[in-house]
Amino acid sequence: GLSGQSCFAKLKLRNLPPLDPEVLSVFVPPFISRDDVQMINTGNNFNKGKRRSFRKKKERPKIENVRSFNGEQKAPDPEDVVVPKDIDLIALPQLCFPGGLYVTSESKEDHIHFLVFTDVCGNRTYGVVAQYYQSMQDGSTSSNGQGHWESLQTGKVPVCFVPCAVCVISRYPYFNALKDCLSCLLVQLRPFRDLDVEEHIKEFAAKLFLIPSPPPGPLHLVFHMKPLQIIIPSREDPDSPIIDLDLHLPLLCFKPEQVLQIMTCILTEQRIVFFSSDWALLTLVAECFMLYLHPLQWQHTFVPILSRQMLDFVMAPTSFLMGCHTDHFDEVSEDLILINIDNGDISHSKVVEEELEIPDVPAQAAETFIKRVEGLQLHFDLELCHLRASTDLGEVQTRRRAWQQKLNMDVQQTMLQLIVNIFREVKDHLNYEHRVFNSEEFLKTRAIGDQPFYKKVLETYMFHSFLKARLNRKMDAFARLDLSTRSEEDRLDLMFPTPRRLTIEKMASRRVSADRRASRRMVISMPNLQDIQLPEGPTRNSSLRKVGTGLSTAFKLNTAPSKSITTFKIPEIHFPLMFQCVHSYYTDFFNHLSKAISTLPPENSALLARYFYLRGLVSLMQGKLLSALSDFQNLEKTDLRIFPTDLVRKIVETLPRSERLQADRRPELKRLISRVMEKQREVLKIDDHVKNFELPKTHMQLDDFVKRIQESGIVRDIDTIHRLFDALTVGEYEKQIDPETFRDFYNYWKETEAEAQEVNLPPAVIEHLDKNECVYKLSCSVKTSYGVGKIALTQKRLFLLTEGGHPGYVPIAAFRDIEDVKSTTVAFLLLRIPTLRIKTLHKKEVFDANLKTECDLWYLIVKEMWAGKKMAYDHKDPQYIQQALTNVLLMDAVVGALQSSKSIYAASKLSYFDRMKNEVPMMVPKTTSETLKHKINPSAAETFPQAIDVLLYTPGHLDPSERLDNAHPKLWCALNEGKVVVFDASTWSIQQHCFKMGRSKLTCMVMVEQSQVWIGSQDSIIYIINTHSMSCNKQLNDHRSDVTDIIVEKKNGTPSEAYSSSLDGMVIAWNISTLKVNRVFQLPCQNLTSMKLHNDQLWCCTRSCILVVSIDEFQLQMKIEHHLRDVCSSFLGFQLFPERDEVWASYSGSSDLYVWNTKDLSSTPQKIHLQDCSEITCMIRVKNQLWVGSSGKLQGKSKGKIYVVSAERKSVDKELVGHADAVKALCSAEDRYVLSGSGKEEGKIAIWKAG
Fold first, then answer.
1. Interatomic CA distance for residues 1224 and 1235, integer angstroms
2. What are phi and psi of 934, to 5 degrees?
3. End-to-end Cα, the chain, rounded Å
4. Helix 667-681 to helix 645-654 angle, to the nearest 10 degrees?
């Protein structure tokens, strides 16, 4: 009888149609009653937006005793709960049972799948669904084991099992954490019946609601949910996504080549459908691919699970990424990319015959990616082989998590490297000033096989957003990796923006096998340094440790130290859920955080910031708004990146009057409130447009021509473009350029550039050239006194590429050795052939080349390169060579474009250095030439020079946890509007271009300790840069006017305290490790401009006097009065020579130095006059000398002079003329070199030998 009944039930059930699931109960926060909330929060408006918890119980239809739960976070209700716009309650039950809801005759195993909801703005919400089965008997249900056991006891036989679902909805993609939570819940639900289940789910939802989301950074949260420890991971930094899934899943389902194919489909924004028989895998694999794109973002429809009723979604005409069960594979027949996760197939359903070509990922990027994926350890079992077996579930969990975390980091890094390798060279075709991308040129410079890929990708929304981020100079994961793996050549390109040509090293590497090419990193020394033959400049600084940089990029990436993660255990939450329980939970939470804060050393500011953030949130939930504001204010000194501006603004707006008055009485909170509210008023509109470069269609005046040339990427420098305009408008009455001339010039330039890429010198020639040399121009084949061949021009020399059986190398002349260049004619039969004649030092024979029609152009070219080389040598400035090269190539393009009798005259307008050499033969004085080592230009990437406001040199040191280039010494250079450019002082190449510290002028920079540089600004803020991460994430806001100086007190060689001063006369003493204010002192007078520290005394220079105060009590101990009767003048600055009991000072607008004896301040100071000096601008002490920067005139032109004054003799030892504008900044490099920076007319840094 029993079996018969069973059989009958099975048959009957098999023929039942699927049932319609419905939402039975909804639980939303908060979970305390409204009365309780009001009781505690009287007078606190912040919580008034919250609504009470409720449970929605539908009238049950008599037959369909089916249920689904939707718990936690957000859900709708007709009563008093607002429906989140991205959660559709009608579609939700279908997604909880995507394969349909069927009553079964047997209980099935619990299972979990994942959902992603996207609203119209593209914001995503995530759901995790747990399905379990309840037995149904006589119209009532009970959970798995219990009901079945009772039915056996009573002799009743269960007829069927009904699937139920609990869905947790969260704003964050905590897939693994919520899966673990639901797994624990399912275990707890087993013994209970219907109503008890609901109470348990409500408690479960309430508990999840009380768990905060951790802020970005190195802190994960842990809480206990029997029997598991649940980890809520944080995102790595504010721009990173949360990763709480196994990122290697697609690498288990697909071969690396297939992963690349799928990435191509996503990057080219195809219509993509994933298929699997496992609902969970659909979402996880799709979500992994979304994370693989980071920092690019998919901007189209994203529905990783389509239920049976939603299949018509795949008819959508736009790009999308969706997921379906494999059962529906044949039903989807549109023009789609079909990806079967279960068997790794990628196919294309096309109504038309021809097959869709999925272009290949660029070959080199693909090759590197495949190698790296093959090197990953994707199987946990292999990791376990050598370990002892775990006897504890917690240990198994911890082991697996640690392995997964490391693997996730490796996969992330591999994918990011792929994205960087694909798009790295986009930046070379951007013009930042006019926000232009030259897509046509970018495509032309891609390898032929890579072009189909780029053609498709360049048209996508995703790429357009990527371009915006690059043009906004966003420092995201892409920019950071690009910067850290940039070759020395790329860094030099930042300093010397010259036309693109193949270096000899790259030409040679074309011959290297593909294997070696992939593993090799190009390291290129600074161009022309060997050439200029600097005797022992800073490039060979023997006190700096030499660090090899020959590591391959891949090796560096794989062995990057993994960032240490700390976990914080959230206190237990006790039930029943009364207000008192929640209150005691928050109190415990607050106390645990306070304890963690008090025991943490101040050096660990990253972790401190996370604890302050969480404690601020807890205080907010407790209704203690001032306490919350105070904790958020601490973030400014620990980690500004996680400061919740919008939340703080909302707190301020809802502060009751009494609390607002209390806040105003606390200076630090008052400053915080005014800053946050001011920020709201000055929200900047970011210019987000991106233009594609197009050739002009109308005539251009000068200004429009400048803009067009800059957009084209040919040249940035405005003065050079003005000369080019003159060249192209030679002989025209109306100075304007027609579109045809512009097009001819542009096309000739680009064709020449493309031809140069094809130049392939034989190995016999390559071995004679330096690896960083490029061939910039080749003549036609001509007859010369050295044989027949082509004349080749590099940035260093001319040589003859001889023709015949074995092409060979014959040197003609290095530019520095040229003595004379002539354009002449040589008789040949009845003809006079135009000939170029070059006379070289140390060579008797003269080089003649019968260049015929090319002769005049080559004459201009060689003379310009010769003059540029001489200028570069005299001024120790390799940039002159790059400028001469640019002039030469512009001449070439002008002649090629104009093709007329006046073209040579037009090209001569670009002979800038040759003209300078002939018009103003500027001799560099001997002393200057001997002392000057090198010049660099921090404004090289800008369109015009910028003044250098402050310079700082920081010595190198090697920390094992750091990247190698962080171990090098650095030169920090503050330009206008808060910009800071950082140079690697071992090669003088730009390391970082550039930081932005507010928008005001920067006034001072100091290395307070090895890991932090403090930068003072006129906006009254001190910005703190972490020298390891090279990022600014802290600031000190205690000054009320311009920060003018920062000095560090060292005890036994280690920094103990820092002092900062501001223009209003305030001096603050800081604890360097905690960044807390130790003491504050207000000077009796305003206009405090600089400070010095000696023997526990602080010397403070104001415009009217120099005050000396003790550092402990700030007691006034000495005063040097302004001694000049001239009312207008005021103290500019001073230097101490304590061993001589002397103070040296200067007045603004004066060209004299004054020396006081500190033992007898009443006597008149000694005066030292500086010859030919208009005005002293700055000064520093170097050993026993005072280096004084000034502005002056020389031969009627503005000049920046440096006077080196001996402290002993009180006389000028040297006068150095190294700048074409006033000297604005001076700094010393280990007392061996002095660096000077000039004003905005020149904007260069000179490096001088001290002593």
1. 11
2. -170, 155
3. 111
4. 110
CA distance 418 to 255: 16
E strand spans, 158-253: 160-170, 219-225, 228-232
Q: How confident is the model at residue 39 (pLDDT cuts 50, 70, 90)?
A: very low
CB 799 within 8 A of CB 812: yes
- Copy the structure tokens of residue 1064: 């209003």
DSSP string, 25-82: EEB-S--S-HHHHHHH-TT-GGGGG-----B--PPPPSS----EEEESS---BTTTBP
Mean pLDDT of 794-800: 92
Query: Please, what is the average pLDDT of the chain?
Result: 82
Pairwise pLDDT comparison (332 vs 1048), residue with the higher score:
1048
Distance CA 1196, CA 73 (A): 75
Nearest to 167 by CA among 208, 227, 214, 107: 208
Q: Is 1075 left (phi over 0), alpha (psi -120 to 50) or beta?
A: left
pLDDT in tens, 185-243: 998 888 776 667 888 888 888 889 899 999 999 999 999 988 888 999 999 988 899 99
Residue with tokens 């369109």: 943
Question: Would you say 1109 and 1115 are in contact if contact means Cβ atoms under 8 Å apart?
Answer: yes
**Cα–Cα nearest to 876, from 531, 493, 420, 586:** 531
**Residue 950's closest CA among 997, 984, 990?**
997
List Cβ neighbours of 43 (8 Å cut-off, separation of 6 or more). 656, 658
CA 256 to chain centre: 28
For 498-502, the CB contacts below 8 A with 24+ separation are 498/882, 498/885, 498/886, 499/714, 499/753, 499/776, 499/885, 499/886, 499/889, 500/428, 500/445, 500/753, 500/757, 501/753, 501/756, 501/757, 501/774, 501/775, 501/776, 502/756, 502/757, 502/759, 502/774, 502/775
Neighbouring-strand partners of residue 1056: none
- Mean pLDDT over residues 553-562, rounded? 43
Q: Please tell me the distance from the alpha carbon of residue 941 to that of residue 438, in angstroms, as a whole number.
A: 18
Quote the DSSP letter at residue 570: P
Position 1168 pLDDT exceeds 60: yes
Average pLDDT over residues 812-828: 88
Residues paired with 1235 in a beta bridge: 1227, 1247
pLDDT at 8 over 80: no
Question: 1062 — phi, psi (to 5°)?
Answer: -130, 165
| Spatial contact of 660 and 666, defined as CB atoms under 8 Å apart | no
Asked if 1006 contacts 1035 with a C-beta cutoff of 8 angstroms, the reply is no
Tokens standing for residue 204: 């479960």
Q: Residue 257's closest CA among 357, 343, 360, 340?
A: 360
In this predicted structure, the answer to whether residue 69 has a pLDDT above a threshold of 50 is: no
Tell me the pLDDT band of 157, cut-offs 50, 70 and 90.
low
HSE of 348, CA atoms in CB hemisphere, 13 A: 15
Residues in the chain, total:
1251
| Cα–Cα dist 443/290, whole Å | 26
1028 burial (CB, 10 Å; 0-12 / 13-18 / 19+) is middle
User: Backbone dihedral region of 1053: left (phi > 0), alpha (psi from -120 to 50 degrees) or beta?
Assistant: left
Per-residue pLDDT band for 759 (boundaries 50, 70, 90) equals: confident
SS3 assignment, position 352: coil
Cis upstream peptide for 535 (omega within 30°) = no
Q: HEC string of 624-663?
A: CHHHHHHHHHHHHHHCHHHCCHHHHHHHHHHCCHHHHHHH
Residue 234 DSSP code: P
Query: 484 phi and psi, to 5 degrees?
Result: -75, -20
**Sheet strand arrangement including 1077-1082:** 1043-1051, 1054-1062, 1066-1071, 1077-1082
Three-state DSSP at 922 gives: coil
1006-1032: pLDDT as tens digits: 999 888 999 999 999 999 998 888 888
